[in-house]
From TrEMBL, chain A:
Gene Ontology CC: one annotated term: Golgi membrane
Intracellular or extracellular location(s): Cytoplasmic vesicle, Secretory vesicle, Acrosome; Endoplasmic reticulum membrane; Golgi apparatus membrane
Keywords: ER-Golgi transport, Golgi apparatus, GTP-binding, Lipoprotein, Membrane, Nucleotide-binding, Prenylation, Protein transport, Transport
NCBIfam families in alphabetical order: small_GTP
Family annotation (InterPro entries): P-loop_NTPase, Rab_GTPases_membrane_traffic, Small_GTP-bd, Small_GTPase
CDD domains: Rab2
A GO BP entry: vesicle-mediated transport
Record-stated family: Belongs to the small GTPase superfamily. Rab family.
PANTHER family the UniProt entry points to: DRAB11-RELATED
Species annotation: Megalops atlanticus
Organism placement in taxonomy: Eukaryota, Metazoa, Chordata, Craniata, Vertebrata
Coiled-coil residue spans: none
Entry protein name: Ras-related protein Rab-2A
TrEMBL record, chain B:
Lineage: Eukaryota, Metazoa, Chordata, Craniata, Vertebrata
Identification of the protein by name: Ras-GEF domain-containing protein
Signal sequence extent: none
SMART domains on file: RasGEF
Entry keywords, A to Z: Guanine-nucleotide releasing factor
GO CC term (a single one): plasma membrane
Length: 212, 353
């Protein structure tokens, strides 16, 4: 299907916080099961619409590789957005956020949009991390924040779509160099012609080098 | 064979290759020899996962997995701690890799990888991502194998970053590229992958001045090897190489575990009270792949390459590793300071296109 933009996401966070479940909840509804290991198939994908434009989200799940940061790091390189997930019923997963964030900032391009997600909001009775704590952490580190439940699907769509909106806004503002694929954004076939004219004004920029 | 992590400075450890039944005394002997320590009064302290400390008696067995970490200290409990960067011995140790043949070094790595891979039961590979225990003793082998993948990467980065001579550092990078290529020839995709990742680690890859001095043909070779670690299209580069390679061969285990995790989490085990056999077949395929990797077409296991000459001992047998990403970056910045970035002017984001 034709798309205007393709955004690459990465989902990170401790083991067992529900990274894969979020991805499955978001993509499974309309597509074939995404966890197809056939060579050449990207991880998870889904089309969304923002501002009347078709945007393809390609989501790289890091489940099962939490202790191999180097693989995760190789995924950062081409990511425009990251979902940093913790489990609201497990304090330790919240405590590890700083390490994850440090890692993400160190290895990604500086414009990568990071969404903080407190998952398993359906398990209110077992909650160990208050919503306010998540909000405070997000505020402090300049992240967007949401609580989700991959089980009941609450806020899952919003989490992925709001991240995409933020990336889209950054593109509109000219923050992302969309012609550099290392930024995790690809322009769809019908858009390629118009964007070529944009590249001139952004020439000479390096990935991750900031905007000026 | 087991790998024991022994903290030798505040920020680094030696991964010592020992027999399973090694005693604390034997381990201390190896560490002291490797570190060129002449102090007679050294003791080993085991630190458990829960932070409990215990002095190890000389004859006590060292169970590598029982201790989260082992420390060496003086008998009066004063630690011989310094930072790896301050130790000229450790800096020299990394440089020894230049004196060895790249092929022999690859051979030693491959031998260790084979013995860890062979000791790992297929069942562990399936149970580990599912969070189930296989039963006593079985889980250890896989943990060692996984730890090994990280250690090889960090070993490469550590050796490069501890080298203060610009010229030698470029040579060292070149040598690691050769070693990685030889690992591939020896059908050891695990160490080949890990070394390439180690050279690609941000603290190493940012050393642009050092890389400029690496010969073009070696850089070209590295870019070929990087196709293996490129995650695009679900690690197509790696999967293609693994498939084309004749057995016996050593796969990169973390990716196998990723596949098992995805099969497990992406597919229901039961559907309408019926077992989802499709999922079971996918799991079985992974097991078959592992078995296939271990044996050649006649069903024979890997014949280990010979040639662990005494000259390859030491720095390649017992890898010296700095684990902390922060320390690695500090070393990297001391070798090549950060480029001054122009201050980010928030307003310029809104400039007209």
């Amino acid at each position: 299907m034709a798309y205007a933009y393709l955004f690459k996401y990465i989902i990170i966070g401790d083991t067992g916080v529900g990274k894969s479940c979020l991805l499955l909840q978001f993509t499974d509804k309309r597509f074939q099961p995404v966890h197809d290991l056939t060579i050449g198939v990207e991880f998870g994908a889904r089309m969304i619409t923002i501002d009347g434009k078709q945007i393809k989200l390609q989501i790289w799940d890091t489940a099962g590789q939490e202790s191999f940061r180097s693989i995760t790091r190789s995924y950062y390189r081409g990511a425009a957005g990251a979902l940093l997930v913790y489990d609201i019923t497990r304090r330790d997963t919240f405590n590890h956020l700083t390490t994850w964030l440090e890692d993400a900032r160190q290895h990604s391009n500086s414009n990568m949009v990071i969404m903080l997600i407190g998952n398993k909001s359906d398990l209110e009775s077992r909650r160990e991390v208050k919503k306010e704590e998540g909000e405070a952490f997000a505020r402090e580190h300049g992240l967007i924040f949401m609580e989700t439940s991959a089980k009941t699907a609450s806020n899952v769509e919003e989490a992925f779509i709001n991240t995409a909106k933020e990336i889209y806004e950054k593109i509109q503002e000219g923050v992302f160099d969309i012609n550099n694929e290392a930024n995790g954004i690809k322009i769809g076939p019908q858009h390629a012609a118009t964007s070529a004219t944009l590249s001139g004004s952004q020439g000479g920029q390096q990935a991750g080098g900031g905007c000026c | 064979m087991v790998l024991c992590r022994v903290q030798v400075t505040a920020d680094s450890y030696l991964s010592v290759r020992m027999q399973e039944w090694a005693s604390a005394q034997e381990l201390l002997g190896v560490v002291a020899a490797e570190m060129e320590w002449v102090e007679p009064e050294l003791v080993l302290v085991g630190v458990s996962r829960w932070g409990e400390k215990q002095f190890l008696q000389p004859q006590q067995y060292v169970h590598s997995l029982r201790w989260e970490r082992l420390h060496v200290c003086r008998r009066d409990q004063t630690e011989i701690t310094s930072r790896a960067g301050d130790s000229s011995g450790l800096r020299r140790r990394g440089l020894q890799i230049l004196d060895l043949s790249a092929w022999d070094t690859a051979t030693v790595l491959t031998c260790t990888d084979w013995s860890l891979f062979n000791a790992t039961h297929e069942q562990e590979l399936i149970c580990y991502p599912l969070g189930r225990d296989v039963g006593s003793g079985q889980r250890g082998a896989l943990e060692l194998l996984l730890r090994r993948c990280n250690e090889v990467q960090l070993w490469v980065a550590t050796a490069v970053l501890l080298c203060t001579s610009h010229h030698k550092r470029s040579q060292l990078i070149g040598q690691f590229i050769r070693i990685a290529a030889h690992c591939r020839t020896q059908r050891n995709l695990s160490s080949c992958f890990s070394i390439t990742m180690g050279l690609n680690a941000a603290p190493v890859s940012r050393l642009s001045h050092t890389w400029e001095a690496v010969p073009g043909r070696l850089k070209k070779l590295l870019s070929e090897l990087e196709l293996l670690t490129d995650p695009s299209l679900n690690h197509r580069g790696y999967r293609d190489s693994l498939r084309k390679m004749a057995s016996p061969k050593i796969p990169f285990i973390p990716l196998l575990l990723k596949d098992v995790t995805f099969i497990h989490e992406g597919n229901k085990t039961f559907r309408e009270n019926l077992v989802n056999y499709e999922k079971m077949h996918m799991m079985a395929d992974i097991v078959r792949l592992v078995l296939h990797c271990r044996t050649d077409h006649t069903g024979k296991g890997a014949a280990l390459p010979e040639g662990e000459g005494p000259e390859t001992r030491g720095c390649v047998h017992h890898l010296h590793v700095i684990e902390s990403e922060r320390t690695l970056f500090e070393l990297s910045y001391s070798l090549q300071p950060r480029a001054q970035r122009p201050p980010v002017d928030r307003e310029c984001k809104c400039r007209p296109l």
